[in-house]
Amino acid sequence: MPKIERNITIDAPVKKVFDYIADPKLTPQWLPGMIETKDIKQTKEGVGSTHNWVYKMAGMSFKGKNITDEYIPDKKIVIRSEGSIKTLWNWNFEPYDDGTRIDLTVEYTIPIPVLGKIAEAIVLKQNEREADLSLANIKAKMEG
Description:
Elements: E1 3-10, H1 14-22, H2 27-30, E2 34-41, E3 50-57, E4 60-72, E5 76-83, E6 86-96, E7 99-109, H3 112-115, H4 117-143
Antiparallel strand pairs: 1-7, 2-3, 3-4, 4-5, 5-6, 6-7
């Protein structure tokens, strides 16, 4: 299972950054390829919250469902995706100077029969670029 690890510092309070990332309806604003999030069901404690999504990669649309497995306000979110693309997003937040440091780990399974072996390496690189762009988008939104 491929893994992407990234971190970024953002000149904004942890609560503001955490709340932005924790809101699934805002995900299409910062995650390239995320076309839609819908059927959002938030639990009071965060764990067990779900939403459905549509994501476009390599010219194809994929559908799935996200489930929040861990939720510690202003500290950590772990979200698991089920469906045509299986992922595990592990977000860690901590105060850094007057802002926030995010440590992100994304593990995912590419639907290789759909894409083909030749496309796999290209998609792996594209996903790394999208992780970088996602964090840059979050930073721009929070600092702007």
